[in-house]
Amino acid sequence: MSRITARYKKYKILIWISIFAVSMGIFEGAVVVYLRELYYPEGFDFPVTLIDHHVALAELIRELASLFMLLSIGIISGKNFTERFAWFIYSFAVWDIIYYIFLFLILGWPPSIFTWDILFLIPVMWTGPVIAPIILSLLMILLSLIVYQFNQQSKIRFNILKHDWLVLIGGSIIVFIAFILDYCKFIIHNITFSDFNFDLLSSLSLKYIPESFNWALFTVGFFVISAGIFSVYISGKNN
Fold first, then answer.
1. Helices 3-39 + 81-107 axis angle, to 10
2. Which of 197, 217, 196, 56 minimizes the C-alpha distance to 125?
3. SS3 state of residue 233
4. In this predicted model, what pLDDT tens digit does every residue of 50-87 receive, in sequence order?
């Protein structure tokens, strides 16, 4: 067996999941290019433009479908929960980074890494500077490659320990709050519980312009996740 063939067999799953994630990022980016040409011909900016409700529904379904696609690749590629999770976050992270690279190459957007974007719509609107999800994507790639490397070195499947899961989940919740905080503050400030209805929520969302990103909260979440990743690495080294 040649050295190239041996290396391919060793890294086969990593290569093909990477190809899948890159392709999905390009595919997702292409859809957004079409939408922005239709609804933001002068370039995307806040507040968001009113779009047809069928298109809005299709966007929500597409977002859910994208998550299920990424989950599926993780489930069919991994041998245990930790490995499945690792492949899921790896494909998610690569997809996200390629998505932004594709948009920049085609549309010249974002003009800056600090440009605000809508990151997700479920369960509420996530917003933040583009650099924030990219930072998280790099952390996810790091964690997934640590798991991958430990699985390559041992015949026994590597598992993330319970206390490490708690740290990683805790950091992720903090980051999640940082992404939705500005939007939620805007909605709470402009709507009362007694007046709440989805039509009013939709109309308010069309007026939302991000004011500030809570970098302090995001940074805390970043360091908590980083600490969890470091703990996972140490646990793997000691086994």
1. 50
2. 56
3. helix
4. 777 888 888 889 989 999 999 999 999 988 999 999 99
* CA-based R_g, the chain, Å: 20
- 192 pLDDT tier (thresholds 50, 70, 90): confident
Mean pLDDT of all residues in 103-131: 93
| Residue 119, helix vs strand vs coil | strand
Count helices and strands (H / E) in the chain. 7, 2
CB 79 within 8 A of CB 54: no
Left if phi > 0, otherwise alpha if psi is -120 to 50, otherwise beta: which for 43? Answer: left
Using CA atoms, how far apart are residues 234 and 11, in angstroms rounded to an integer? Answer: 23
User: What tokens were used for 19?
Assistant: 């190809």
pLDDT confidence of residue 7: 72
> ∠ CA 154-157-158 to the nearest 5 degrees?
90
Average pLDDT, stretch 195-217? Answer: 84
- Strand spans (E) along the chain: 116-120, 126-129
Closest-CA residue to 35 (of 8, 54, 12): 54
Residue pair 176/119 in contact by the 8 Å Cβ criterion: no
Q: Which residue has the tokens 């409700």?
A: 53
Structure tokens belonging to residue 61: 């379904």
| Strand 116-120 versus strand 126-129 pairing type | antiparallel
Q: Which H helix or E strand runs over 113?
A: none
Question: Do residues 9 and 82 touch, judged by C-beta distance below 8 A?
Answer: no
